[in-house]
Amino acid sequence: MRPIRVLIAKPGLDGHDRGAKVVAAALRDAGMEVIYTGLHQTPEMIATAAVQEDVDVVGLSILSGAHMTLFPRVRQLLNDQGRPDILLTGGGIIPQGDIEVLQERGTGKLFGPGTATADLVDYIKSWATDHLDH
Fold first, then answer.
1. SS3 sequence, 33-61?
2. How remote is the C-alpha of 47 from its chain's centroid?
């Protein structure tokens, strides 16, 4: 049984990555393999890295307000590269109405500030149980 592979990315110009690093550490502590791409990633860079690293999950951390552009773009690029099976999830400051629209467009559950890391771990593990052949 291989570990769940997760890519954590900070798309766009947002320079605040403390939350992304906390999430990456929590997922590692939960036994997942985590790749953190660092700051200022383009959607193209994120999708390419996800496919090259053969990840199961992509988590985007977006605080810039560009979530309505970035989540759909990464989803489309993953689909275009033959990986619609990758869970796209993430978090940031995202209004509830936008969360609902993004989920309708193929994004998984999204998390806001102050979410317990255990909630993220549980969500990804539950998704993996239903979607991966471990």
1. EEEECCCCECHHHHHHHHHHCCCCEEEEE
2. 11
Please give the pLDDT value at position 1: 78
CA dist 33 and 83 (Å) reads 19
6, 48, 72, 85, 91 from 79: Cα distances, Å = 17, 11, 10, 8, 21
Tokens 């989920």 -> residue: 103
Burial class (CB in 10 A: 0-12, 13-18, 19+), 104: exposed
Closest CA to 11 of 40, 35, 44: 40
User: What per-residue confidence (pLDDT) applies to 3?
Assistant: 97
What average pLDDT does range 79-91 have in this prediction? 97
